[in-house]
Amino acid sequence: MRLQNCAHNDYDAVTGIINQNHGGSGGKHGFHHENSSNKKTESQRASNMIEPLVDPLDAELFNDNEGEFVAVVRAESIVNAPTNVETFGQPYVQDPNLPFTTAEEARDEWTQARMRRHTRRSFHPDEELNLPGKDSITCTTIPVDWRPDSFDNLVEKHWNVLQKDLISVLNVGYREGLPTTKSITDLRDHVKTCINYRRSTQLNEKLRGFLNEYVPSIFTVLLDPSGDLITTARDNWLIFKDKISILYEVFLDLNGHVGSAVALRPVWPMAIQCVRVLLEDNFNVFESVADGVIQEINNERNGIQIDGDRVHKIIEMFVMLQAYETIFEPRFFAATQKFYEQESQTMFADTDVPKYLRHAEKRIREETLYYSSYLDLKSKGPNLRIVHKCLVTNHTAQIVEKGCKLLFNGADGAEADLSLMYQLFKDSEGGFDHLKEAFVAHVKQIGEARMNATGQEKTLVADLLETKAKLDRLVVQCFEKNPMFLEAQKDAFAYFINLKKDKPAELIAKFMDLKMKNVNKTLPEAELDQLMDQVIMLFRFISGKDVFEAFYKRDLSKRLLLGRCASVDAEKSMLDKLRAECGPGFTSKLECMFKDMEISKELCAGFKEHLKDTLPVKQRITADFSISVLTTSSWPVTDGIAEVSIPKQLCKLQTKFAKYYIDMNKGRRLAWHHDLASAILVGKFSKGKKELDVSLYQALVLLMFNDKNQFTFEEIQTATQIEQSELVRTLIALISVKNPILIREKAENARFIPTEVLKFNDKYHSKSYKVKIAQVQMKETEKEHEQTEYEIQQDRQFVIDAGIVRLMKEHRRITHQQLVHDLMDSLRFTSTVADIKKRIENLIEREYLKRCDDDNQSYDYVA
């Protein structure tokens, strides 16, 4: 049987039992009701009629599986209940544990049951309902003024039972008498009874008054301590937690975990509030506790072992009492700042920077560990910032000034110490600025020392690459590739590498020339590719990129023409890197040089076929030869080269090729440059034949000794028509080795004299059959260097002129200051204001622009 009490706040309720018979009389389902009329008059309401809240058709929804159905009805008027009230066919038992249910809850339960019933019907539409019961409805009303006799004194009765055991729980010294599990269960039954009878509010007020009276007694010893204050506070707090935990179990239902009183304040907040009131009345005591805990922490900072669990319990007390941020935290922060300010001043004065940095890092790590042991995490961030400020931020400038120079110069463990300094400066305001300034000063210092070192030009580029690699490693390992330090390094490098204006660009070009000659000999191609990347990085810093282009082009021309290109792929790879860095215009002439060499090979092969087809067999040239046709605008050829006297065989070959080429290319003209030619001769010596790889000038000199064994310097010059300076360079290569081909008669003389005799050394010998005589063309002459510099200046003048005209076309009228400023921003090389002013004057003379009539500091473009 299911009992349904429908009680409003004034307890007027009607309950009833509906007994059904599936074949009974009255209604579709055999129901019988005292009045089934839907419309009621006032007289009907006055005649004690009742109205069901549910449709009789749905009355079976309240089936309790025992053949009886409960229907909820509302009384239209209250009737006097008999002395022995029978509800649901049984005598009513005044059970104090019987729960009362409101009409609202009854309606909600009926709605849910109805939904379940309709859902079952939707899935089983053909199911027959077996509806047992009688064919009548009997209802019994309960009057509003009827209730159990003991209801008014219910809370007081149960509270008297509870209070006896609660006193034993909270009184100091009764820990051994705490209730057992069985007694806690009994106490909870009293709490449940009060809750069931809707007396949660009254019970809660009883509990609050009880806590306000007895909780302060737990802390009596703390308020008047005679021993260790910290230990007393810890013990009192543990006793408080133990006893309130038991109360929490007793009043678990009241706390809302079980039962219906979910809106009432739980036990713990009420108990904590009692302690907070005690705290406000005895503020000085809790301040003393906080000072004691802080002193314990300072003792641990000084290396004295402390009871961490005791500190942890006190911190927990402050947190739960919501006094951590108001009492403990401000005092703790102030003590931390005072402690580390004193320590930092002493440590910084007595130790060097690396030791101080390691000490600071150790202290910060220790402070972090305190929070994982006993301090509250809420103050971790602020406290660490205070420690960091005292140890690092306040001394940032002094740390950099005192220790950076030593660390940058590579002392033992310098990289690890620099990395530690960088990590500590991360959280320091302005810390990176001080460190960056020191880093820039260091880079400039070592760079200036490299650039100003005397006699170090040959190794300057290698030294710069080594310095760059070291600084890169420093930025990566110590500064975590921080963009701030990368940019600082670039700016510092660009500053000192251009102290000598165009000289670094020239030296970088010569450095690459040397490396390109030795590919696959002393330098594998894989390493060369890495080296080229490093050189390109240096190339980015130089301002005179046109200087690099000029010298690199001259050296490349010699490598191509004299067969000294060790790897064409490596040469083209370098061009690709230069094109990617500066654009296709920068490498167009260099690429044209490679194209000319490829065309020359095809042209020479065609000329050889032409000779075979046109010359008789006896007149054909048996010697192997090659001719390179160069585009004048792309190659750094020297104008005004004097003609030399070449052998008749070569002269005939030269004439035939010139005719062949001009016939194929009408309107073109060939200018022969024998200074860049080479030859291979077979020399017969007393110790055997040797194949000599020499320049054409050297070949002309050696061929003279087929006629006789000695000649004077003047005779050789007259016969070959070689310019004197070039002849001297040619002869030095033949006589300056340990085993020379020509022997100088007066070797002690520094200079050649016209009458000096040179003899053929018939005893010349070499372990190799093929001997490469030093090719003087590979060495740059003073004249070639001057010619290159002259070409650079001429090209720069053309670039400045073109830039000025372009700006004048764009603006039509422009001031002198703006013209100079815009022009210098657009140039790829460094130029002075004086040089630009000269070019402006030159363009005015050539009538490309003129000064404004109304403004002497402005220019107008002349179309």
From TrEMBL:
<dbReference type="InterPro" id="IPR016159">
    <property type="entry name" value="Cullin_repeat-like_dom_sf"/>
</dbReference>
<dbReference type="InterPro" id="IPR036390">
    <property type="entry name" value="WH_DNA-bd_sf"/>
</dbReference>
<dbReference type="InterPro" id="IPR036388">
    <property type="entry name" value="WH-like_DNA-bd_sf"/>
</dbReference>
<dbReference type="InterPro" id="IPR019559">
    <property type="entry name" value="Cullin_neddylation_domain"/>
</dbReference>
<dbReference type="GO" id="GO:0031461">
    <property type="term" value="C:cullin-RING ubiquitin ligase complex"/>
</dbReference>
<feature type="domain" description="Cullin family profile">
    <location>
        <begin position="503"/>
        <end position="735"/>
    </location>
</feature>
<comment type="similarity">
    <text>Belongs to the cullin family.</text>
</comment>
<dbReference type="GO" id="GO:0031625">
    <property type="term" value="F:ubiquitin protein ligase binding"/>
</dbReference>
<dbReference type="InterPro" id="IPR045093">
    <property type="entry name" value="Cullin"/>
</dbReference>
<keyword id="KW-1017">Isopeptide bond</keyword>
<feature type="compositionally biased region" description="Basic and acidic residues">
    <location>
        <begin position="32"/>
        <end position="43"/>
    </location>
</feature>
<feature type="region of interest" description="Disordered">
    <location>
        <begin position="18"/>
        <end position="44"/>
    </location>
</feature>
<dbReference type="InterPro" id="IPR001373">
    <property type="entry name" value="Cullin_N"/>
</dbReference>
<protein>
    <submittedName>
        <fullName>CULLIN_2 domain-containing protein</fullName>
    </submittedName>
</protein>
<dbReference type="Pfam" id="PF26557">
    <property type="entry name" value="Cullin_AB"/>
</dbReference>
<dbReference type="InterPro" id="IPR036317">
    <property type="entry name" value="Cullin_homology_sf"/>
</dbReference>
<dbReference type="Pfam" id="PF10557">
    <property type="entry name" value="Cullin_Nedd8"/>
</dbReference>
<dbReference type="GO" id="GO:0006511">
    <property type="term" value="P:ubiquitin-dependent protein catabolic process"/>
</dbReference>
<keyword id="KW-0832">Ubl conjugation</keyword>
<dbReference type="Pfam" id="PF00888">
    <property type="entry name" value="Cullin"/>
</dbReference>
<dbReference type="InterPro" id="IPR016158">
    <property type="entry name" value="Cullin_homology"/>
</dbReference>
<dbReference type="InterPro" id="IPR059120">
    <property type="entry name" value="Cullin-like_AB"/>
</dbReference>
<keyword id="KW-0833">Ubl conjugation pathway</keyword>
<dbReference type="InterPro" id="IPR016157">
    <property type="entry name" value="Cullin_CS"/>
</dbReference>
